[in-house]
Write a structure and sequence with these properties.
The complex is a heterodimer.
Chain A: H1 9-35, H2 42-61, E1 70-71, E2 76-77, H3 80-107, H4 114-130, H5 134-153, H6 159-190, H7 195-204, H8 211-227, H9 235-242, H10 245-269, H11 271-296, H12 302-330, H13 334-369, H14 386-389, H15 391-405, H16 411-425, H17 429-455, H18 468-486, H19 489-500
Antiparallel strand pairs in A: 1-2
Helix pairs in contact in A: 1-2, 1-4, 2-3, 3-4, 3-10, 3-13, 3-18, 4-5, 4-10, 5-6, 5-10, 6-7, 6-8, 6-9, 8-10, 8-11, 9-12, 10-12, 10-13, 11-12, 11-17, 12-13, 12-16, 12-17, 13-15, 13-16, 13-18, 13-19, 15-17, 15-18, 16-17, 16-18
Chain B: H1 5-25, H2 29-54, H3 58-88
Helix pairs in contact in B: 1-2, 2-3
Classes of the chains: A mainly alpha, B mainly alpha.
Chain lengths: 504, 101
């Protein structure tokens, strides 16, 4: 913001295009909705998908920037890392749109505000993954969060949805206040808001008083809230449960991926300070994994079970972050440390993608089997006998559950393997062992769903909604999960390469 | 006595803690909202104070952005609150228990 960077907006436009397409597209969808009469809104879903495709195309067409290039005077990074997350976010938003539209069609009632809000939420996620300035970090977090608050709360006439939205909003705003205080103190120490200046200030005064560690802690609290780290997870089960299934999928994958992307950049920014927080962070990571898995064991609703499982998965991802943080200490040489760090960073990116695929798949099955928006396919008992009634959907859900549990030959297994491997290489063997134990524990509740589907006869209330779009999408996702599980090598190499090129 | 940076930081810390206590203790949703606004204001004071100290305008820009975001947050929060109040006739956070199990 304060550098002598020349303003070359014209040259930056092609690189900014994905963000601009989403912003303008969101406004356009809103306008089109305002001018269209009647009850049907399928043209909005088509338009939304076109905007998202346009953003992906703009991203593909964007010229490769030289290494270290930033946009808007240092506000955003134009690196492989942001490109990676832009494409991931667009994919997640497209799948969410497909699920939501299939639910609306079954209901006959469209929810027009969903489409622009999804576009704005996706824009916020993309900006969050690209932010390289304290100001753009804050604005991106808020762009994403404000849109998601409304998405969660906006189901008309549903008290559960309003209540979930309100809880998310109150706790989210509370976390924002922590983030803002942390950013203010960082700004005070650095005298500027761009990451490079903050990094310099941190390096210059590694133990200069209490304010820097405090600032770092406040920022970690806020990001910990977004990724649902214990003890900032209290909102997760209620909000995931109360939000409509199609929005929960977006929250569990998109918001989490974007928050981890921001966390990876921030962590890279603050090494000497983060050192002070390392033991506490390690304890919280262990608690996050264990708590999520233990409570998920006793859940009867699939959405709530997936909410606790998402807490546990945040724990596995935080293990990767710990590995990134720990590399500076034990490794013999700088080259070795860099190699371990790249392995850990690549493992996190790989796992985020895999997690998005399998979780969106699971929520897609929920969307597919829901009879209407009021009767979501939530109760696990309602899945009894699914293998007889709907063999294809049952098979895809089985793939997602195997993958979430981390059983080969699915991508979930490979993703966990890369993470634990990086953790061991970073010299944190006990943490890796604890992660493996947790992953074994989690198999119980994932496999229970499969047992219910394949071995229990259908009785009482069963879920029998139908949507060919959702079923087709789930099939594609299941194939991808299997494919990444069988041949993960080249994609992992891509993820590690992406992480290596990250700038801040 | 001149008012220096330390005074501003102390004021901000006090406001931040008051706001935090309000969020954690008060049960009326509107007061909880107000408390969050107090916390944001505390951060704004820090920004403004450091902006003055460094002779750098970025802090002021940040404060203006925070105003806008806080307004948007309040608008959304109050909208949801109206919807809840219509059905529940209460804005007490302890009454928000539909999702508890």
């Amino acid at each position: 913001m304060n550098g002598p960077t020349p303003v070359t907006l014209g040259a930056e436009l092609p690189v900014l295009a994905p963000y601009l397409v989403l912003a303008v597209g969101g406004l356009a969808v809103m306008l089109v909705d305002a001018f269209s009469g009647g009850r049907r809104r399928d043209h909005l879903s088509l338009l939304t998908l076109l905007v998202l495709l346009g953003a992906a195309a703009a991203q593909g067409a964007a010229p490769a920037e030289p290494r270290g290039a930033t946009l808007l005077g240092g506000m955003l990074a134009a690196d492989r890392f942001s490109r990676f997350f832009n494409l991931l976010t667009v994919t997640i938003a497209m799948l969410t749109t497909v699920y939501a539209t299939s639910m609306f069609e079954r209901d006959g009632r469209y929810r027009a505000d969903f489409y622009p809000l999804t576009l704005f939420a996706a824009l916020g996620m993309m900006l969050l993954a690209a932010a390289t300035d304290l100001l753009s970090l804050f604005l991106a977090v808020e762009t994403m969060s404000l849109a998601v608050y409304v998405l969660v709360a906006g189901e008309r006439g549903s008290l559960r949805s309003s209540e979930a939205g309100f809880k998310y909003l109150i706790l989210g705003a509370f976390a924002s206040a922590f983030l803002l205080m942390g950013l203010a103190l960082l700004y005070g120490q650095a005298g500027a808001t761009d990451y490079a200046s903050v990094h310099r200030a941190v390096q210059a005064a590694p133990d200069g008083g209490i304010l820097l560690p405090l600032a770092c802690g406040l920022v970690l609290v806020a990001l910990g809230f977004k990724v649902a780290m214990v003890p900032f997870h209290m909102w997760t089960p209620d909000v995931y449960d109360g939000a409509p299934a199609y929005v929960t999928g977006l929250m569990a994958t998109g918001v989490k991926a974007a928050a981890f992307a921001a966390l990876l950049r921030v962590v890279w920014l603050l090494p000497p300070i983060a050192e002070a927080w390392f033991p506490l962070l390690a304890v919280l990571t262990v608690l996050t994994m264990t708590y999520g898995n233990l409570v998920a064991l006793s859940q009867n609703g699939l959405k709530r079970m997936l909410a606790y499982s998402s807490i546990a998965h945040a724990g596995y991802l935080l293990l990767g972050v710990l590995a990134v943080l720990n590399t500076g200490r034990d490794s013999a040489t700088a080259v070795q440390a860099a190699a371990v760090r790249d392995a850990a960073g690549g493992a996190i990116l790989f796992y985020l993608v895999v997690y998005a695929l399998m979780n969106l798949g699971a929520f897609g099955v929920v969307a597919c089997l829901s009879r209407s928006r009021r009767e979501e396919a939530d109760a696990i008992d309602g899945y009894a006998g699914l293998s007889r009634r709907r063999p294809f959907v049952a098979a895809t859900l089985a793939v997602f559950m195997f993958s979430l549990a981390g059983i080969p030959p699915t991508a979930g297994f490979v993703g966990k393997f890369y993470i634990f491997d990086a953790v061991v290489k970073a010299g944190l063997v006990p943490l890796a062992v604890w992660g493996v134990i947790n992953s074994l524990l989690s198999a119980y509740y994932y496999l229970r769903v499969i047992v219910v589907m394949y071995m229990k006869p259908a009785e009482g209330e069963v879920h029998d909604g139908h949507s060919w779009e959702a079923a087709f999408t789930c099939g594609v996702l299941a194939l991808l999960v299997l494919l990444l599980g069988v041949v993960p090598g080249s994609f992992y190499a891509l993820a590690a390469h992406t992480y290596r090129q990250m700038i801040f | 006595m001149t008012v220096g940076l330390t005074h501003y930081l102390a004021l901000a810390a006090a406001l931040f803690l008051v706001g935090m206590a309000g969020v954690l203790i008060r049960r009326n949703s509107l007061i909880v909202f107000m408390s969050i606004e107090i916390m944001l204001s505390a951060a704004n004071i820090v920004f403004a104070a450091y902006s003055r100290l460094h002779g750098d305008l970025a802090g002021h820009v940040f404060v203006l952005m925070v105003f806008a975001v806080a307004a948007a947050e309040a608008a959304i929060g109050l909208a949801i609150l109206v919807e809840i109040h219509r059905r529940r006739r209460s804005v007490n956070v302890d009454d928000l228990n539909t999702l508890m199990e």
